[in-house]
Amino acid sequence: MDRVKTGIPGFDGQLEGGFPRGRTILVSGGCGTGKTIFAMQYAYMGAMEYDEPAVFVTLDERPNLLREDMARFGWDLDKAEKKGKFVLIDASSAKIGFPSKEKYAIEHTGLNVDKLMLRTLQVINEIGAKRVVIDSLAGLGFQAENETNIRKAILKISYMLSKPDITTLLTSEIPEQTNHGTGVYSKYGVEEYVADGVIVLHYSETAQGAMEELRRTLFVRKMRGTKHTQEILSMSITNKGIIVRSPEEAFETPL
């Protein structure tokens, strides 16, 4: 099976070398768990290190702020965009009915799944994209009439992006109290069944003697066609992006 390197140090070895190519992967987590950074690292490193052009659709964050935030990790999105290897599609402005100054954007007359996918597919074909990110699916619920329509929208997105040479990451929010291995794995309760893989990010408190410490962790709930670890992995956000380590490695070599 052809594998897609994630660009996240320490993670590919937990998945037999990376994501299966042509699949859809869901990255879920509560607020502040690192979903956008995880997805951007996958897209940016793919474009700049592995020669796999990427399209990143932002439904929540403004593109200019994303560029500023990601520069802190040494990721020059402007440079990647100018090389034609990376495209940031602004869907956040259309969601609130504002015009966008971005070259690639959804019309401000309103956001719906058909517009979103038409524009995304146009850009995929334009740059020959191999990686696609939709961040986040929760943004689709802003103007949806009901949850049933949201579920249909997610199914449509997954179907339309289902191509052998495109590997897609979808991000979704889950309640803060959700634990690894139990409970809910997505906002709308359908994403995890549509996706070929589910990765859950968590930000938890652990007791360290008389002190409590916040720790970021990652758990691979499922990954079709892949043997994967069933351990809860340590995840750190460094000045170069996300690094993943096994519990033993995290204990032996703390950052």
Briefly, what is this?
The protein is α/β, with parallel strands linked by helices and 255 residues long. The protein is built from eight helices and eleven strands.
Q: Can you give a write-up of this model?
A:
By secondary structure, the protein is of the alpha/beta class. It has helices at 35-49, 63-71, 77-82, 92-95, 113-127, 147-160, 191-194, 247-252; strands at residues 3-4, 19-20, 24-29, 54-58, 86-90, 131-135, 167-173, 197-208, 211-223, 233-238, 241-245. The strands form 2 sheets. The chain has a 9-stranded mixed beta sheet, with helices on both faces. A two-stranded antiparallel ribbon has the order 1-2. Strand 10 and strand 11 form a beta hairpin. It is globular, with a radius of gyration of 18 Å. The two termini are 34 Å apart. The mean pLDDT is 89.
Q: What are the main properties of this structure?
A:
single chain; 255 residues; alpha/beta; nine-stranded mixed β-sheet; two-stranded antiparallel ribbon; 29% helix
